[in-house]
Structure prediction request, 180 residues.
Amino acid sequence: MEKEWDIVEVLRHSRHDWLNRLQLIKGNLDLNRVDRAKAVIEEIIIEAQHESKLTNLKMPLFASLLLKSNWENHSFKVEYEVLQDSESFQINEELMTNWTYLFFKYLDEAIEVFQENHLSITIDPQSDGVRFFFDFSGIIIKSELIEAFLADPKIQLDLVVKEFSESELALEVFIPIQKK
Prediction:
């Protein structure tokens, strides 16, 4: 399905991200932009909180896909948010992970490269399952690829297209909790 990441690669990418953030903070402090440095620190804290909530969902395949998504050669930046801490639940993680992987693949093929393409994923654990909201903003040049992917009868997800235009795509996917 995807490239295997070894621990050295993961640490290398993580270290690179942290060095960039520290340089951004240091640069703002050197320019006496204390408010901007504090804002960068606050952004890091919020991102770390979302990362923690994501890993606490007990969905390691899905979490791994999202955590390394910005280290791969996608033509869009991924941001994610988990709305609440939740107790452990059992959903078909493999189905959701495989679908998301394919969605990333088709999105890469359908959008204009080297543009400000952004995908925001919101994860909302609920008592009967998990809702995933995918909100893309950017430039879609091959909407027929996305349309064909979303219309594929093999998709076994409760999927609703909320908006679809040349510059936006909003989807809602619901995965019910599996009975034990």
Q: What stands out?
A: Helices lie at 7-30, 34-56, 60-67, 93-110, 143-151. The longest strand covers residues 118-126. The CA atoms of residues 36 and 167 lie 30 Å apart.
